[in-house]
Amino acid sequence: MAPAPDWPLPRVFAHRCGGALAPENSASGLRIAAALGMRAVEFDVMLSADGSPWLIHDETLERTTNGRGRVCATPDAVLRNLDAGSYRHRAFAGEPLPTLEAAAALCRELGLMANVEIKPASGFEAITGEVVARRVIELWSGVQLPLVSSFSELALETARHAAPQLPLGCLWVRPPADWRARLDALAAFSLHCAADKLDDSLLCAARAAGIPVLCYTVNDQSVAEALFRRGVASVFSDRIDVPGRSEK
Ligand code: G3P
Ligand code: MG
């Protein structure tokens, strides 16, 4: 397996595009993150019934849109007309769900680096990894590729196969004991995990191996600073309004 490509990590990623300041996984979130001076954003990508990649976190539409049912059973023509903003605030009424294509174009326009989290619906892990990897390579052609992560190792395997040059991140809530072997098998660049599940022996081993550790979801600045002191490279945060969060 080829060595993992390098990736210019920021200290903080705006979680789900704009953190708590916008509908999650939205174009408004990307614009707000850029306006606040964030260098990088994280967002979740899932396939529609037509096999197209869209930005959305949940497998179902109810929590964040005015639609109903599973994303993987909903055609593009329906997703295109949903209101994915009102659930957050009426100021965002009519905010559409972004396609991966729209999000890529906006990241490029705004100069944002991205962590694309492959979020497959259950049963669609392999195809989601493959489609997202292929589209990422096309959509970010000529600029810094996104860091692509997933909780699904199957999705990461098919992403790696489809795009050998892609920087990958293995995402776990709590990393398993054999995290290093799994990460190496994917030639992954980074390890991502829940901030409160991190232990110092893992951090020490990752640091010795030159593997960056990224933690979610860190909304308290003093917790972020403590993690950085312990050797964590980056955090994902909903609180991008906190002073000191932007790096531009
Ligand atoms: O990628 C980090 C984080 O986004 C993982 O959790 O559920 O917010 O996608 P979730
Ligand atoms: Mg995510």
CATH class division: Alpha Beta
For the biggest β-sheet, the strand order reads 1-2-4-5-6-7-8-9
CATH architecture: Alpha-Beta Barrel
The description of the largest β-sheet is: 8 strands, parallel, barrel
Fraction of residues in helices? Answer: 25-40%
| Tally of domains | 1
Quickly list its features.
248 residues; alpha/beta; TIM Barrel; eight-stranded parallel beta barrel; 9 strands; 31% helix; globular; binds SN-glycerol-3-phosphate; binds magnesium ion
Describe how the helices and strands are arranged:
Blueprint: E1 12-14, H1 27-35, E2 40-47, E3 53-55, H2 76-79, H3 100-110, E4 113-118, H4 125-139, E5 147-150, H5 153-162, E6 168-171, H6 179-185, E7 190-194, H7 200-209, E8 213-216, H8 221-230, E9 234-237
Parallel strand pairs: 1-2, 1-9, 2-4, 4-5, 5-6, 6-7, 7-8, 8-9
Antiparallel strand pairs: 2-3
Helix pairs in contact: 1-3, 3-4, 4-5
The structure holds SN-glycerol-3-phosphate and magnesium ion (MG).
Descriptive notes:
- The radius of gyration is 17 Å and the shape is globular.
- The chain has a single domain (12-237), classed as TIM Barrel (Alpha-Beta Barrel), CATH 3.20.20.190.
- Helix 1 (27-35) runs parallel beside helix 3 (100-110) and helix 4 (125-139) crosses helix 5.
- Helices cover 31% and strands 17% of the residues.
- The chain has an 8-stranded parallel barrel with strand order 1-2-4-5-6-7-8-9, surrounded by 7 helices.
- By secondary structure, it is α/β, with parallel strands linked by helices.
- SN-glycerol-3-phosphate binds at residues 15, 42, 44, 57, 117, 149, 171, 192, 216, 236.
